[in-house]
Known about the structure:
Elements: E1 2-5, H1 7-16, H2 24-33, E2 39-42, H3 47-57, H4 64-77, E3 81-83, H5 92-101, E4 107-110, E5 125-127, H6 136-145, E6 152-155, H7 162-172, E7 183-186, E8 204-208, H8 219-233, E9 238-241, E10 252-255, E11 258-262, E12 277-282, H9 284-294, E13 298-299
Parallel strand pairs: 1-2, 1-4, 2-3, 4-5, 7-8, 8-9
Antiparallel strand pairs: 6-12, 7-10, 9-13, 10-11, 11-12
Helix pairs in contact: 1-2, 1-3
Amino acid sequence: MVVLAHPDIWIEFFKNKGKLIPSTGYKMILRILNNSQNLFAYNYEWNDYYESELLEAEDDTADFIDIFNNLLVQLNYQDRLFHENYGSIKNFNDLELCFSNSSNLQFLLINNEVNYLNSPAEKCSLILSKIEKPNSHWIYFSILESDSSHQLSVDYRDFRSNQEIQEFIHNLLNLKNPKSKRIYIQSDYLNFGSLFERVKGKRITYCSSEYQGIDKKNSPTLQAEKLSISTYFGNNASYIVSGNKSYLHPRAVFYNNLVLNMNHDFPQIVLGNENWHLTFHYCIEAYSEKLRIIKNYRAI
Length: 300
């Protein structure tokens, strides 16, 4: 993931570095920083803006500009410093424009919402002070901190309404500048429920493993199912099938290196059911493996 960090992220990090009891913000930044999957965008034309913000915030205990420059050297050595070809940044508005207009940047990272006042809500803006499970800030932080072995989980207790569940799914499946905009949904049943209300119209591939073979006998059924899928999801939806049930989890969604698994059918992911849970994690290997598997599926 490519992250653009507001200067207040580094100010919070440097102020708390080495403290016996650091702030919660510091701990969250450290977890994002320690995830080797994250790249940090920078351009040395931005030096004046970043250094002026750091200089204004520093105290007698540390030279924030020197620490910041050392951090840039370290990230560059680790091949985690991403050069963003955006011109001079003189203020936060310029930083926002850089993020909005870039085709590379995926997350805008901000420590305190005070620095975001009077600004429009930007997709994939993560404000650490606003993290509250299961809102969008919690989702973005979960993605940025997680590695291939770290799975996150939500269940009915985390939501106040079915609309919140739909919003949660929408936020997960609506990232900025994804490598692929296609969403793969795996289920052996065409029971959509209301879970995907907010992702209708997107590029959907619906995958089923209920067919041992495709012949004249089941062709009308398959065509009817394809029509049902396109009627619900829109004309951007496609339908692929296989007869190997060992291929994929029967209730899964995968998108842009994210893998979601559910223990109940999609219509049962509602507040009225107290037995469901949903897990997700960001894993390039697991996502790539699922894409490899569905190459063996047949398009209807």
